[in-house]
Design a protein that fits this description.
Elements: H1 2-12, H2 14-46, E1 54-58, H3 62-70, E2 80-81, H4 82-89, E3 94-106, E4 109-114, H5 117-121, E5 123-124, E6 128-129, E7 132-135, E8 143-146, H6 148-154, E9 161-162, E10 165-166, E11 181-187, E12 197-201, H7 202-207, H8 216-219, H9 228-231, E13 237-238, E14 240-245, H10 251-259, E15 266-269, H11 271-281, H12 283-314, H13 316-324, H14 329-370, H15 381-397, H16 399-411
Helix pairs in contact: 1-14, 2-12, 2-14, 2-15, 12-15, 12-16, 14-15, 14-16
């Protein structure tokens, strides 16, 4: 009877109640959406690179090394000598390595000089390997593999010829027009900076900066062949390199050895630690988004409280009738609280379902356009915490109109 009375009372005021439910649903949608996207973004951010035990570069700060080697942001303070690289990777504790050479671009997208091991050893997310949407890894000196976004935005396909530019600007007057590259592979989307980069061989990167004319025979020579002519394009320096070790326990030992490398000053960082430090720097933005969503919810709750308080005056005859049939003042207090909780639960259901539908519909768009892999699993412990908090704050917001009804009942 108590529940039926609250339901019928809300239906009797369906106009104002509907508007309140819409306002509450929008605020809950924003609050849960911001929290879910924040958590997913943090997970995607921290899984930009996985399976890499150490990242090594010239002596610099850990965040700077992480930014230019993984996120392709900024520039290195110095390069690493090739001899130093070969010495480090010859350590028995090193299982595999991925050298990286930066400095060139193509229409605003970074060019990454590396080896074929990049496609077999680099991983992201939950140890996901790079996969090819079409084509294959580079095998010749002027082959290039494109990230998914590069291929999509610039409308490139297998066999296309492209010209790289010196520097990182979208517009460059220093083009390597005499040494065009041929697209041989396009990577599947990853939601990481790999999507916005072009991968070429280290020898290809070196060749475009070499003034010597490249013969057609050398263009068609496989990059792993041991020829005197080809070895002249072996790089003298690289930007950084990633290491996979034989065991996680060896990470600190190898890191200490590299940081004390006598031949030249080097820095070795643990990617997970550096990513956590970088995320901490973004806490201000994260907390600002949370604050905005909470303020929107508070505004909706105040609207709920104002609507119910205004309805008390309209329901004075209803309150009088309930007192005549013997309803105690506490009954009216609990009735108003129940009505507020019903509005809150309906709003939570609508807001949650709307968020789930939106994520299912826009999942591919978020991944392709913004590099955000947001899953639709919104039922988490954090979500339950927010829902419980919303219901508690709803009861608090409804306390003023409930107490008003209580006082009105005592007077009657």
């Amino acid at each position: 009877m108590f529940f039926q009375l609250a339901t019928k009372s809300l239906l009797n005021r369906k106009g104002s109640v509907s508007l309140t439910i819409i306002a509450m649903s929008v605020s809950i949608f924003v609050l849960l959406g911001v929290e879910h996207i924040r958590q997913q973004t943090k997970e995607n951010f921290q899984s930009t690179v996985s399976g890499v035990d150490l990242i090594v570069g010239a002596r610099t700060g850990s965040l700077n090394l992480l930014l230019y080697s993984v996120f392709r942001i900024g520039a290195p303070t110095n390069n690493v000598g090739w001899d130093s690289y070969t010495h480090v990777v010859s350590d028995p504790l090193v299982k595999w390595s991925i050298p990286i050479s930066l400095g060139d671009s193509h229409k605003g997208y970074r060019v990454v000089g590396t080896t074929q091991g990049y496609f077999t050893n680099f991983s992201y997310g939950s140890r996901k390997r790079l996969e090819f949407e079409s084509g294959e890894p580079f095998s010749k000196i002027f082959d290039v593999v494109l990230g998914s976004e590069v291929a999509e935005k610039l409308k490139y396909s297998i066999g296309a010829k492209i010209v790289l530019a010196h520097g990182l600007g979208k517009t460059s007057f220093s083009l390597h027009e005499d040494k065009p590259f041929r697209v041989v592979g396009i990577l599947a989307p990853t939601g990481t900076p790999v999507d916005q980069s072009l991968q070429v061989s280290l020898q290809g990167m070196e060749a475009i900066h070499n003034n010597q004319r490249i013969t057609q025979t050398l263009r068609e020579t496989p990059i792993n062949i041991n020829q005197i002519e080809f070895r002249q394009f072996q790089p003298k320096t690289i930007t950084a390199f990633m290491l996979g070790l034989t065991s996680k326990i060896a990470s600190f030992k190898v890191q200490r050895k590299i940081n004390n490398f006598p031949a030249e000053p080097l820095t070795a960082i643990l990617p997970g630690v550096a990513l956590s430090e970088l995320w901490q720097m973004m806490k201000v933005i994260e907390n600002t988004l949370r604050l905005v969503s909470v303020l929107i919810l508070i505004a909706a709750l105040l609207g709920l409280s104002a609507m119910m308080l205004a309805s008390i005056r309209e329901r004075r005859y209803e309150i009088y009738l309930l007192r005549v049939i013997g309803a105690p003042p506490i009954f009216l207090f609990l009735l108003i609280e129940l009505e507020a909780l019903l509005i809150s639960m309906i709003s939570i259901a609508i807001g949650t379902l709307t968020l789930l539908t939106s994520l299912l519909v826009t999942n591919d768009l978020l991944a392709s356009s913004y590099g955000l892999n947001i899953n639709s699993d919104i039922i988490t412990q954090s979500t339950f915490t927010y829902i419980c908090t919303i219901m508690i704050t709803t009861m608090i917001a409804a306390a003023i109109p409930s107490f008003s009804a209580y006082k009105s009942a005592k007077v009657n």
